Amino acid sequence: MHKLLQDRPGEKIMLLGNEAIARGAVEAGVAFATTYPGTPSSEISLNLFQMSQESDLYFEYSTNEKVALEVAAAAANSGLRTFCMMKHVGLNVAADPLMTLAYVGVTGGMVILSADDPAMFSSQNEQDNRYYAKFGNLPMMEPSSVAEAKDMIKDAFDLSESLKQPVLLRTTTRINHSNAFVTFGEIKPRNTKGRFERDPHRCVTVPAVSRGLHVKVLEKMKTAARLSDDSSYNFVQGKGPLGIITNGVSFYYAADAVKDLKLTDRAKILRLGFSNPLPRKMIADFLAGCEKVLVVEEGEPFMEEAVKAIAQEQGITIPIKGKSDDLFSRLFEYDPAMVREKMAAFFSVPYTPKTVVDTSDVPEIPMRPPNLCSGCSHRATFYEVKQAAKGMDVICPNDIGCYTLGFLPPLSTGDFVICMGSSVSSSCGFSKATDQKVVSFIGDSTFFHSGITGLVNAVFNHHNFTLVILENDITAMTGHQPHPGVDMERFGLSGYGRINIEQLVRAIGVGHVSIIKPFKVQKSIDTIKEALAFKGVSVIISQEPCALYAKSLKLKKIRPFMVSDKCVDHRDCITTIACPSFYLDKDNRVAIDANTCVGCAVCAQICPENAIRPLKQ
Amino acid sequence: METTRLIIVAVGGQGNLLASKVLGEAALIAGVPVRMSEIHGMAQRGGVVESAMVFGDAESSIISDGEADILLGFEPAETLRALNRCSKDTRVITNTAPVPPFTVSVGLGTYPDVEEIKQLIKAKTAGLVAIDAMSLAREAGSPMSVNIVLLGALIQTGALGFDRKDVEEAIKRRVKPAFLDVNLKAFDMGFNAAANA
Known about the structure:
The complex is a heterodimer. Chain A is of the alpha/beta class. Chain A has 4 domains: about 5-225, Thiamin diphosphate (ThDP)-binding fold, Pyr/PP domains (Rossmann fold, 3-Layer(aba) Sandwich), CATH 3.40.50; about 230-345, Rossmann fold (3-Layer(aba) Sandwich); about 375-555, Thiamin diphosphate (ThDP)-binding fold, Pyr/PP domains (Rossmann fold, 3-Layer(aba) Sandwich); about 560-615, Alpha-Beta Plaits, CATH 3.30.70.20. Helix content of chain A is about 35%, strand content about 15%. In chain A, α1 packs across α2 (about 40-50), α1 (about 15-25) runs parallel beside α7 and α16 (about 420-435) packs parallel to α17 (about 445-460). The two termini of chain A are about 40 Å apart. Chain B is built from 8 helices and 6 strands. Chain B is globular. In chain B, α5 crosses α6 (about 145-155), α5 packs antiparallel against α8 (about 180-195) and α6 (about 145-155) crosses α8 (about 180-195). The longest helix of chain B has 17 residues, at about 180-195. Chain B has a 6-stranded mixed beta sheet with strand order 2-3-1-4-5-6, with helices on both faces. Chains A and B meet through β8, α11, α14 and β21 of A and α1, β2, α2, α3 and α4 of B. β8 of chain A pairs antiparallel with β2 (about 35-40) of chain B.
């Protein structure tokens, strides 16, 4: 049995934040869950996916976040407890349904989780999604710890059901990817059979209906504001004239700082866990009891600006500070020493930071940048496109996935990346705005996510570029989740459809479609050259399973290669494809690590001396 | 309760995350509160994996620069790179067997001299235990047990204040039965190596 399905209330178990959230949803009786995977949220959905295979919980990997939210919206309007989770930028994709679903509301409890990524450990920006709650009129909750996240999601479902409004649960990477001991609670029975009751004056958002719904949603938020003022997730800890207002993981940095700075008798903390609508009365009372207030929140001054507005309404003129040049930054994540230092400065208490060891005389340490894996088919495709496009003035829009790493030398096949799907649409723009040749790259999962519409646009508006779809049969970057082009039998699962990318691309009307097997180097280069010569939209589908995934499934017999004594040491292999299986041996000659080589044979095909041969085993 | 802050640095694939889970389990057995945070986005693609473990009363789950009480490095250059997490009071335990980055493997970068790494760390911190955990892991029966060898060394130093029995029990709970004997042997070898280092 899946460890998160175990009905053993009271048992203490170490869980990753994302596992705790998945468990919390199960304890809350969640019946329906949807997602598009994205770090730092991916392990929540992975666990729900696994649990759905041994219970009556419905879970699906949807094609993108907008689809996931719309699928979930229907379930939540059929009375089911519904959970929809995504990374912060995923909520941008889902913003269209989000804003109007807030008007329509729900009949079953619905929690939408946004996993924000301050410091951008694995994201293209560090937007602060708390503003979506304010923008969209959604109640919001924010946990400060792994254990609290598990309990909070249960209350978020209750809150959603009582208000008939979706609730936003906002986490940050340090919650999602922290481990802590969590105590299992009871698992509420799941109601998995929904029924939709027709209610067009709530559910059909023509202008006449929506005008009424906007009035209603503001009323709901008034109720939510009262609940926020009474919520146990908003609390004051400690006492004294110095005030700290904080949320999320910053709460514990602030609590530790108060102890470390010996401010326990002089400072109190207002922790806000139900943070939209903010508990205005509670904040006003708190301010009234303070001489000065420090707001500690990562990201944007979301609470700070609201607290200042409340102070203005109350005629409170004490200093309130958070983000400023000499205090906290809007950049990156906070840490305990930073919070301690800023708190000491603001409250004028002495503080001597620990002295970091002097590293000025430490020799240069070679970096360890992430690299495409040994035998990664993307490397082969990038190499072949570069060879085929030799001498051309090329722009390479790239997309979001492992293959974004193609921008690194020596492959250098990434010139423009902004968001999922942008490779295709930006190619449309580049091809019209410039005379340069445009060759763009997108992974199969990302193509299904948001590449298809761009391609339809390209055909309709008669653009001129080559799109390479990297079909590796899996969503690799986020940990091998399925997508609509995947053979689900490989997961041991039946009852799924499968979309054929080639048929789809041909049906769109792309003028030139070709398939390459990237481990056949010369043949691929020839095919790519033809595609590049085509005037109009051409698509190359590069088909080869993800090397890591293939290895884990033992799809192929691995036959490693070695460098024979025919090698004359010009090192073309290293300088052009840079596969991590290469190394220099004791005699400073190129060698191949047989433990990591997967036998793609790409290097063997590009070696002018034919020096790279299968290792005899 | 005193707070002890431990940073573990490793290269993807060295088993850092399992090591921190074992220590977390040992903390549960010993009744010590613990919070852990990890950054592992690019681990499978050759990047650096870092875990922070905070034992005791502090509530934060991450560790600021200069504030690690113990630095456990699974790879010597990574231990050196993490020196900014240390103060003069930090105790350091490191593996001395390099896992060269790709740039070094193909002659495009220079790997720092391991003796120099050791001298630098020794001079700047409260003490260094340096062992060739890779050789010991091989001797124990599997190069994959390098993480548990290093746990053995960590526990021997007493820096964490854990009883070795608690950690061995945690290994039993966390390691797959087929690999248990190798790992218990690896733990013992790391423990003994640190005692003689």
